[in-house]
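Appendix B, example 12.
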Amino acid sequence: MNEELASKGKAAKQAARILANLATAKKDKALQIIAETIMEREPVILGANDQDMDEGRANGLSEALLDRLLLTAPRLESMAKDVKSIVNLPDPVGDEFDQRRLPNGLQVSKRRIPIGVIGVIYESRPNVTIDISALCLKSGNAVILRGGKESVHSNRALAETVQLGCQAAGLPRESIQLINSPDRALVRDMLRANGLIDMIIPRGGAALHQFAIDHATVPVITGGIGICHIFVDAAADFTKVVPIVVNAKVQRPSVCNALDTLLVHKAVAPQILPRVADAWYKHGVEIRCEPRAMEILEDHPGVVSAGPEDFDTEFLSLVAAVRVVDDLDEAIDHIYQHSTGHTEAIISDDYPSVMRFVNEVNSAAVLVNASTRFNDGGQFGLGAEVAISTQPLHARGPMGLKELTTYKWVVFGNGQVRP
């Protein structure tokens, strides 16, 4: 195992023991100081980010990746605000649930406890450094971060900011640690760091997630790959359609909950699609249409024929695939065939259709008459998120504080012995 990882893993284990037993007030004090330190160190953080942006452009990073990498004063302010919002969230650690008294008099319950040491492997987005650090601290977990080489300067500045906040609050500096080495072999080492890391969260592209699945011996939470759909039903309120699909595609196209595929019922497609196309064109969206959609939109600018791979693509840019479907059944079948289980939405005022969609579409988040962009920890009231899980085990959707805990059984007796 890499020497740096081994050393930081042991230090994280020691820090996790301390964090697991900290009072909520002490954790909240640390978070408040971290939020203030982010703003105090704005010139340092933005200067480091400028270095990453310059190197990213020189290395030919796409506009989508550059957008994920970029830090600005408003984005830093938003990050600090998210940290402060976590202060106001209830601390799940120590919560007792499923209490009951057995016939033999034993009092049995479950108590929430931190997972321990969380390893996070992520790419491009330096704000992840702050989001994950804050959530892990509040939930009593230590964290080892391994960011991508494209954000190395930003991540170092942000990790140091969190460590300074921890020190000022009397928490171990090793509560938050960043792997400095760019050696890609470290990713494999983290995935196999049993005894040092208790859970791994990969945040990046499909290749990273598959690599984690193939090589991990540490438990892994996968997700974050979003091929997201909106279905416009025959009973849709036309006034809602354009604002929702424009927001879902345009508001921030480079993120995982942005719209990728629009499905439109054939009964309303001739009325809906031209309106959507006109609105998207104003924002520079390229529309990739299957044949029936193309028949309706062939005279509109920005429209091309969809290729066979377009309905299986997370675009992360101003590109959307469009398909006309016969009915709700065909829409649901399409989602089952092409979705990654991230986020799907229906626009409809027909209650039976809405409930069928909600009940039958088995994605991490299903929305009704709302943009897919709401599948986000902050928007769901979690303060922030460490990831959006698309797997069916342990946690689904945005992972906030409660999803960063496990539980232990606590049993109180009065001398009982097993017969």
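The mean pLDDT is 94. The CA atoms of residues 222 and 391 lie 6 Å apart.
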